[in-house]
Amino acid sequence: MEHVNLDLDALSSVTLSASAITALGAIGTEIWFESGQTLFKSGDPHTAFWLLTSAKVCIEDPVGNREGFTVDEGQFLGELGLLQGQKAVLTAKVTQAGFVLSVPLSEFRSLLQTDPQASDAVGTAFIARRQRMLRRGLGGLTLIAQETDQRVLPVLQFASRNQIPHRCLNPLAKEAGKLLSKSVPDHGAPVAVFGDGTVLDNPTPRSVARRLGVELSLDRTEAYDLVVVGGGPGGLAAAVYAASEGLDTLVIESTAIGGQAGTSSRIENYMGFPTGISGADLCRRGEVQAAKFGAKF
Questions:
Q1: Gap between the Cα atoms of 128 and 5, Å rounded
Q2: Both 116 and 151 in a single domain?
Q3: What is the CATH number of the domain that holds 196?
């Protein structure tokens, strides 16, 4: 396990090429931040891609004030939620004053489509960071309930299948009491605590999805060139091809990207992976690839 964590730390810290940094500098704006200032908070929508020109940042889980990891100057911020249109699940605080390059997301996406090195570096780091968050239980969702409680199982399954960083605390644990500042309600219903301090009684997959920005709110006046119904491997492949050709693409899936294939522990008959790959990893890569080209889910 320690070896795996070390690999994830290394993959999370990849840097961009000098040419990519130059390209970002041409489309971004440098902003000075003092030590102690916040770049973004858990629950905030992602509005920009951040490159640390000379500043250093600490990434924290505000639920329980748990420190996650640091990002040094010369590196960039963000994880999968930035590409997927989700809200930030962690908080970024400046620990060393300096300049931070802010790049509009639309311009950032365009760069990923034209710079293979930047695309590879960002994709690798974002996937590794999400995996690191999952392993450490860092993120914007803390459930206070017995894991065997039938009322919380749908939320746990939804979070796991969608690779949403989360943890579940026993209602009698001391930390659970501190988070709520009072005892769990008398009816003993499950409670969800989010990074922005919101406490939600009787959470459901849909209410959690809305709070975290997983459920996309569509503009009914917006037109799409292609709507893919079903987010399994076939649907994801269609989304990748369509979005890469510049088509406005929307993928609709009821529960989690990956469909039935996403629940498979190992797939060995899929072209390109002779040693096999888990269904969740295969479909997550496809989702990242499609999202990189602008597909919405």
A1: 10
A2: no
A3: 3.40.30
